[in-house]
């Protein structure tokens, strides 16, 4: 594997989003538990399994989105964009130098990006966005008419890092 040198890196501030999603899901589970208990008089085993699966899914999502790092790395082929999710970085997106056609700094609203979280699909819809807040974002035009947007502080620095030749 070729050596990758980090050119620029930023940790996204996604703790508030994860806390909000966690709080809403916790309230949903709490209300559904109370409703199931009062409506039938007993708590069915199937409902317990559903609650456990929902909690496990919630914890997984919060762990993945609690730590997100966006970085531009120098490879032997040029500069690539990496988005690393979760502790340990087991889930990651890598846009190799041959995939990146152009990069732009944008100022976008939630509506323009589709809301918080990961939106879209690069495979099916040919566009995706990782949104942790409104405002400044890096837009990357990819091969095969695909587009990826990620909210970062100072997106112009990422544009410069991606488009500069080593």
What would you say this structure looks like, in words?
- Helices cover 37% and strands 37% of the residues.
- The chain has 2 domains: 5-12 and 68-163, PH-domain like; 15-65.
- The mean pLDDT is 82.
- The strands form 2 sheets. The protein has a 5-stranded mixed β-sheet with strand order 5-8-9-7-6. It has a 4-stranded antiparallel β-sheet with strand order 1-2-3-4.
- By secondary structure, it is of the alpha+beta class.
- The protein starts with a strand and ends with a helix.
Short account of what is shown:
By secondary structure, the protein is an alpha+beta fold. Helix content is about 35%, strand content about 35%.
How many β-strand stretches? 9
Order of helices and strands: EHHEEEEHEEEEH
Query: Helix segment count?
Result: 4
Low-confidence sequence ranges:
none
Strand % is 35-45%
| CATH fold group of the largest domain | PH-domain like
Could you say how many structural domains there are in total? 2
* Beginning-to-end CA distance, first to last residue: 19 Å
Spatially, the strands of the biggest sheet line up as 5-8-9-7-6
Helix content: 25-40%
Task: Give the integer mean of the pLDDT values.
Answer: 82
Structural class: alpha+beta
CATH class assignment of the largest domain: Mainly Beta
Main sheet properties: 5 strands, mixed
Radius of gyration: 19 Å
């Amino acid at each position: 594997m070729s050596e990758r040198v980090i050119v620029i890196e930023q940790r996204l501030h996604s703790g508030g989003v994860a806390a909000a999603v966690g709080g809403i899901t916790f309230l949903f589970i709490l209300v559904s538990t109370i409703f199931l208990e009062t409506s039938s008089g007993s708590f069915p085993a199937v409902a317990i399994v559903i609650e456990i699966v929902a909690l496990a899914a919630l914890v997984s999502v919060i762990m993945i989105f609690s730590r997100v790092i966006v970085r531009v790395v120098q490879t032997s082929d040029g500069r690539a964009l990496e988005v690393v999710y979760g502790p340990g970085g087991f889930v990651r997106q890598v846009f190799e130098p041959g995939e990146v056609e152009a990069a732009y700094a944008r100022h976008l609203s939630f509506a323009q990006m589709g809301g918080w979280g990961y939106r879209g699909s690069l495979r099916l819809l040919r566009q995706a966005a990782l949104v942790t807040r409104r405002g400044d974002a890096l837009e990357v035009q990819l091969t095969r008419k695909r587009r990826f947007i990620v909210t970062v502080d100072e997106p112009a620095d990422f544009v410069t890092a991606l488009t500069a030749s080593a």
